[in-house]
Amino acid sequence: MKCIKALILTTILSFLLFPISGIASSLEKLPSLESSNQWEVIIDMPKSEELEPKPEVYNIYSMDVTYIGDEDIKLDRVEVYRDDPSTSYDIELFTATGDGDLVIEKNSEQPSIGHQNFPISTKATELKVIITWKSESDGSRKYKEEFTFKQ
Asked: Which residue segments constitute the domains of the chain, with CATH numbers given?
């Protein structure tokens, strides 16, 4: 009986001292959502298996950006950056541009921009999504919003 108690106690202590982690340095909860009055950005598991994660090197995620604002707009661009702890600047992962032709109607329920899979270094601690758009009624002025996800 003492042996069983010791085994159970050892097992519990090992889980507390050495937690099991699926992917090191990954976003804590997926899907991860950040939103504002204009935009909803979701970072989630990859939607394609074209690229496999390499533990200790990079993890793979997908991203959907949906416009939830209340006016018609023209999406100019979505830029995604990650930080690098060894530098003072951010590194671009990808940029999606609408080339001024991507008109998004208010209350559209489909993602404005989606990316199936992209790698993020396990050394990165932040993922920044920068969205730039123009109002359909005032096409001369650009607007920008930035979302930051912690890894």
From this structure: 23-150 (2.60.40)
* Greatest distance between any 2 Cα atoms in the chain: 78
From CA 142, how far away is CA 134, in angstroms rounded? 5
Rounded-to-integer distance, Cα 147 and Cα 116, Å: 19
Q: What is the pTM of this model?
A: 0.74
What's the pLDDT band for 7 if we cut at 50, 70, 90?
A: very low
Supply the DSSP string of 23-54, one letter for each residue: STT--SSSSEEEE-SSEEEEEES-S--SS--B
| Cβ atoms 94, 118 nearer than 8 A | yes
Q: Residue 32 corresponds to which amino acid?
A: S
